[in-house]
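Morning F.,

Quick status update on the modeling queue. The single chain you submitted on Monday has been processed. Sequence for confirmation:
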Amino acid sequence: MLIELLTLFPEFFNSPLSQSMLQRAQSQGAVEFRVLNLRDFTFDRHRVVDDRPFGGGPGMVLKIEPLVQAIRAVREQDPEVRVILLSPQGFLFSQDKARELAGQKHLLLICGHYEGVDERIHFYIDEELSIGDYILTGGEIPALVVVDAVTRLLPGVLGGEGAVEEESFQTGLLEYPHYTRPRDFEGHEAPEILLSGDHQRVARWRRQEALRRTAKARPDLLEKAVLEDADREFLATSTDSDKKD
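Structure tokens below.
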């Protein structure tokens, strides 16, 4: 997969893209990152990329010309590239969307900035994504969120399908609790069942703890999760027990 990032601050990505899983994914050949400087797509000597908004108001707006020049330059190389603008007005990014994007061969992520982007950009992009209902300085951090979430889903990046399949949101539930050595830390012991060696009981415990955690922290997820009769019975019993406590 090729992921290109269009930004006013290309140096922002130097460290994150060269660390940990993202660096390993590049070394393995699973993904290639290219960072594009929006100013390279301007034609004036001052390389201006923003201007005052029509109608007045605070802040500056990213101009349409350099954005479209950049998009067209990328599409000339690959007409199938999926062009995505990161902005607070976009659809909420999710694990399902990450899986969808991981199936693409080429992404161009546009990092918005200043007060916003000229609205006419929507004639030239494929979609608009947001990572949450809050305002950030620019689209660089949201772009990194998308990059990380998508890259880790690429084949071989995490060393096996099981590592991905059991994570939070993959099954529609939050992930079960994890423990490791020491077995007892300051009187707080790891659950005995995890040390039993009984893989069937461990799997059942993990499923129930994932259900319990989801019901407590994100009950909205249960409405879409695929549940078996045993899951529903456990949730009903667990909920009644919590009410008594």
